[in-house]
Here is the input.
Amino acid sequence: MSQRMTKIHLFGLVGLLLLLVGSYLGLFVAPPDRYMGDVQRIMYVHLPSAWNGMLCYLFAFGFAIASIWQHKPKWDALTVGAIEVGAVLNALLLIQGSIWARPTWGVWWDWDVRLTTSLIMFLLFAGVLALRSFVEDPNQRATWTAIATIVAFIDVPLVYFCVRWWRSLHQVQSTPDTVSSAMVMPLRLNSIAIFLLVIWMVAQRARLEMIRHQKEQVDEPARMATVGGLENV
Amino acid sequence: MKILRQTWAVVRKDLLLEWRGRSRILSVLLFGVVTLLLFSFAVGPDSVMLRTAAGGFLVLALLLSSTLSLSESFRVEQELRAIEGLLLLPVDPVALYYGKCLSNTFFLMLLAPVLTPVTLILYSVELDFAGFLTLFGLWTLAAAGLSAPGTLYAAMTSRLQSQDVLLPLLLFPLVIPVLMGSVKSVTLLLTGDPMSQIQSWTLLLASFAIIYWSLCGLLFPHAIEEGS
Here is the structure.
């Protein structure tokens, strides 16, 4: 168990180091954008946040299916871990997007397809966490979290295409072919770094959830005994 | 065939109960009318602006009324733990879901004949008979789209104390495609559709309804398992 924990901490440590190197390269080595100048440097955390946030929701969807299939607490713990980390990255994405949009577009917010989809995605998964916090029974909580996660995840492509029809302003996605190689390296490093940090954080959050689950299992018979005792009085 | 019979029995039970009480549909209708009135106060007496936003207001009235109707549909099942009785009969959970979904869709469809004339009068919008029929078709698709996830979430949240908060919190972000699709198509219907865009938005509404009627039907039996 402790060996496995050390391995997990290694993910966090390597992720942090890579993030430092990637951010240094992005801030001081990579050239500024021809049109946006230094403002563009936010891309080195903005895009990795977006990719990894989406990946977290995808993992949560997979864990949720496994949770409904097998009813094992570990899948529920991983689902909640992935949703929470995904929601944090999603919130960071929205904040970074606003910071970038102000000098570039002249507004803090615009009803652009990816911006709007990100906000709706955040609200969808925040709703799942809210539902979870109101359910006391651990088994029911796990099932309902999994159901709400699946229902929310299936909605994401629908929301995306719907908002895309509605309107769009966001610039076309960049690919390694369309940006300078000096910009690609910090972007790749930071993406890998945040991915490693995501693994570490989801594992830590899942571990915490498993401890809570075990505590609930211990507390439940004691609580039932107290209630039963009171009823007998 | 058994599942169809059971689904029909659930729909019939809901309609009969509502017919005897009539409290749910009356309060939901009244709520919808009050909402339409409030929207016009929020915008002001500018008739051009009101006419432009009429489609959006009509759909928002449907959306806001739907939470009342949906939460009520499972509140009655929680009273005296009637849902357990239904499952013990035994009613197939899938039949229970589709029965509830159909009756919820029907109750939301009943809002159209009342809220549409109120909108036309309050916002000075004109609509011919063919337009009325198209609007009713769009309304039915929107009601079906709202009912599918709404029935599933109402079944879950009805067991919790914070149902009134949780149901809209879960439902509103989820049904944004329904909201956008119906607002766009109803607005195009009321203000003119020179580019024939209504078909695309109708397709979106139909896709949402098909996806969520299938998905939620699969998930519902898990949602109502006792301590699953």
